[in-house]
What does this fold into?
Amino acid sequence: MADHNDPNAVNSIFSDIDVSAADLYDLFGFPSDDTTGGEKVVIALTFASVPETGVFDTDMLYRIQITAHPRVALPSKDDHSLEAMLKYFDAVKDKYLGELKASEVRVTVDQAHRAKVDFINFPGGSFSTVVDTNKVLTIETPGGHSIKAFLGGRDDAFFNDLPGFFRSINYAPQFYHVPHTMTEVRELKIPKTLLELEGNDLFNFDPENPKLGQGVKKDLPPGPLTWNGNKFLKDENGNFRFVYSGKDAQAGKNVNAIILEIPLGFITESTEVNRIVNTWGESWVLKAAHKVESIPDHPLWLEHPWVLLDAIKLDEEMKKYKLVDTVGQPFADAGLSEREDNRQLGANNFRLAPHFIKRLAHLGWGFGPSISALGLHTSFDHDNSPVSVHKTYALATEAFPRVKKTLFQELNMPDDTWNKKGLDIPLRRPFEIFIPNACAIDMDTTGTWPFGRRLEDQVATRFLSLFLDMEAEFNGKKYTIETLNDQSLWDQAPIIPKTPPNPLKNDKEFLDHFPYLADPW
Amino acid sequence: MKRPTDYNIELEQIDKDISELEDSVITIPIDIEKATKFVYRLYHRASLTGNFAGFKVAETAMNNVMRQVGPWADLCLLKANLDFKFHRLANAKHDLAMVPGLADCFQGKALQADLDLQEGRYEDARKGYEGVIQDNRTWDNLVRLAYLKAKMGDVDGAEQLYIEAEDEITAKEMRSYAWVELQRGLLDVSHGCYESAWAHYKRANEAYSGYWLSDEHIAELLGAQGKFDEAVALYEEVIARVPRPELQQALGDLYVFIGKSDQAQPWHEKALAAYLESVQRGDVHYFHHLADFYADVRENGAEAVRWARKDLALRQNFSTQAALAWGLYRDGQFTMALDAMQKALSSGVRDAELFFQAAMIHLAVGRNDEGKEFLQKAAEINPHYQDFHIHR
It folds into this structure.
C-alpha cells in the first residue's frame, strides 16, 4: 500500500515554489495632486511580474478593498496602557468588521490579456467592465464618475537595501543555502542589530566576499549558529560598521501593477466627512476544482463591456478562489508578521495585536541598543544595554512596558508640508498604523507615510524611525520619521559606510502624471 | 496541430529544468540548492512517468551529491521518501535521523505517520496525521488521513477529508487535484459505486490530461463494469507507454477474468519476470506483488507464503498480514492462515477484499457461521466485490 497512497509522488516534498504572481509587493495610496473635477485618490497595488512583465496570470484574482470614514477618535495621549490600546483595537475592529462594509475593485485577466474589472459595493452601486491591459484608460461609471486605470507592467517603485534589512535580522537564507525543511534556521537566534556585532562572522560584511547576501550564498556552516560576543564591532578608527549599504536592491526590476485614480465622490457620498480612505490589497488564486469548470469566454462580457453585477453571484465567485497574500502597510508583513501564511489576514489582523507587541519588543532589543550606541536616543526601553540582545517574549504583557513609548509616541514629520491644508490633524502613532493592516490615506494631507504612502516615501527607513525617541533632538530639531534619511546625521556618526540605510530615491524617476509609476525596464 | 497534453507539458518543463540544472552536480563546489533541485526534478520525473529506472537515476544522483556535501536536510528527506516508496522502511527512518530536527519538520512528521501506518501502529498514524494537519493543513496531509479513515471504514469521514483536500489545491497544482480525484474514484470503486467513480476519473482527466495513471484507473473501472474490450485496449495502450509489471499483471488478470487464459499468459510471464528481476537487483518493493501473484495467478501457496513472509519482515500491517494469510490458505495451511488473518482483522480495517479472504479462510477451517458473516460484510461494503479489480 505504500505505493498507492503516496501524495509525495505527486506533491512537491519541498515548499520549493518559484516566484508567484500571488506575491504582493506594495500598496501605495495618496490623494491625487490633480484635483480637476474634485478630489481623487491614487491606489497602486504591485506584485510579482509573473508570468512576465505586463502579462497577468489568468488564474489570479486581485482585490483592492476600500473604505472611507472620518478620523477615528484615538485613546487619550496620556493613557499609555495595554488595556487602552486593546480597547482601541476592539473599537476599530467593530467599526471595520461591522458598519464599514468595504467596497472593492476586483480584477481578473483572461488569456487574451483583457482584464475584467469589477467595482463592487460602491455608494453608486456595482458595475463591471472589460478593459485592455498595459494602457492608460478612463473608466466611466454609471453614476458619471471617471476612474483612471492602468493594469500592466511597471518599474518596481520600491527602493531599498533588502540585503541590509536581512543582515539586520540575521536572515540566513539571504546569505546561506538553507534547507527548506529547516525553518528554524531562517532568522537565526542572534540579536537583531543595525550595527555589526563583533565576532558575528555569519553575517558581518566580508571584504573577501563582498557580494555575499547580494545573490551570492555560502554553505551553511555546521552549528552552533549563534553569537557569543558582547559588543558591537568597531574598526581601528573607532567606527561601527553599518549593516546597511544604502544601495537599491530593487534597481532594474519590474512589477505588474493595478493602478487606479478614483474620485473620492465615487468612494463615499460624504466626501466632507469621510476624510480617511483605508485600502488594502489581496491576491487570490483559483482553486483547482474551479479551473476544471472554467468557461473560456463569457459572451456577456464581450457583448456588454460594462454590466451591473449581481451581489450573490459575486460572493459565489470568491468561493472559487483561495486567499494567498495581503498587503496594507509596508513592513507589517515582513517586519512584524514574519510573512507567515496564517498571518495573512489583510485588514482584519486585529488578533495579531499581541503578536505585534511581542515582535516589536524583539526587534527593539536589537535596534534600540544600536541606536543608543550611535549616540542617538531610542524609544525602546533596553535598560541601557551596551549591545543588541536576542530576546523573545511569550506574553504581550511582559513585552509591553518595553515598547510602550515606541507604540504610543507621535511620529514627528520633518516639516508641515504633509499637512497641506494646515488642519488640526494629530500626528500618527505606531499602534494605529499597523493595526488594522491597511493603508490609511488622509485626504487632507499629501498622503506621505504614515498618512498614506506616496511613491517617493522611503518607508523602510521610516519604519526604523519608530525606534527613535521622537522627543529627542538632532541639530536642534526634534527627531522625525526622516531623521535616519538625513545624510548629515551619518556624516557625524561614528560609522561606516556613511550612508542612510536605504536609497533616498527610486532608480527611475516617477511620472508626474497617471499612472505615476515609471515605465518598465 | 494537436494541443500537447498537460502531462507532456509538465514533462517537457521537467526535462528543461533537468537540462539546465545538471551542471550543478558536476561543478565544484556544488551549489547545494541547485543540486537539490536537480535531484528533486529527477525524482519528480520518475514519479510522473512511473519509471523505476528513473528512480535509480535519481537515487544515484542523490547519493553522489550527499557524498560530497554530507547529509543535507532536504536531500535526506527526499531520500527518506524514496526509501519509503520502495518499502525500505528502516532506511527511511535512518534517513530522517541523519539530520537533527528533520523528523520534527512538517514533512518529517507526515512521513513518520506514514511509517507508523506501514508498521501497523494505526493509532499513532492517526494521531500523527491529525497533529500535522493541525500544524500544517495541506492537501497532502488531509489525503493521508483520508486514506486511513477509508481503510478503517469511515467512508464519510474520508470523503469529507478528500473534499477538504481538494479545496486546498489551487489551479497551479492540477496534477495533484487529478490525483485526489483518482483516490476518490478508488474509494467509490471499493464500494461498488461505479458511476460516481467514473465521474471522478473523468474529472481527473479533465483536470490533467494525458496522465497514464488516470487511464490505468479507468481501465480497471471499465473491466469492473464489464466493458472488457475497452478495458483491454486501454490497458494495452497504458502498458505501451508505461511498461510497469503490475500493469502487465493487471491485463493478464483481466484476460483470466474473461476466460482468455491463453492471452493472459504472456502478460503474466512478463510481469513475473520483471518482479523477479527487481528482486535480483536487491529491491524489495515487489515482494507484496509476488505474494499476490503466486497466490492468485499461479495458485502456488508455498511461493506466495515465501514472498509474503519476506514482505512481513519489512512491514507488519494488515495488508502484509492478509497477504501471508492468503498465501497460507492457498498452501492449505488453514489454521496458520486463520491466525495471520486474525492479526490483519485486528487492525480494524474494513475492506471487502479483506473480508472475502477472511470468509474463505474461516470456511476452510470449518467456521462456517463466521465465514458467512464475513461474506455478508464484504457484500455490504461492496455489493460488486467479485467484479474485476486489481490489488492495489
Remarks:
- Chain B has a mean pLDDT of 96.
- DSSP finds 21 helices and no strands in chain B.
- Chain B touches chain A through 54 residues (CB under 8 Å).
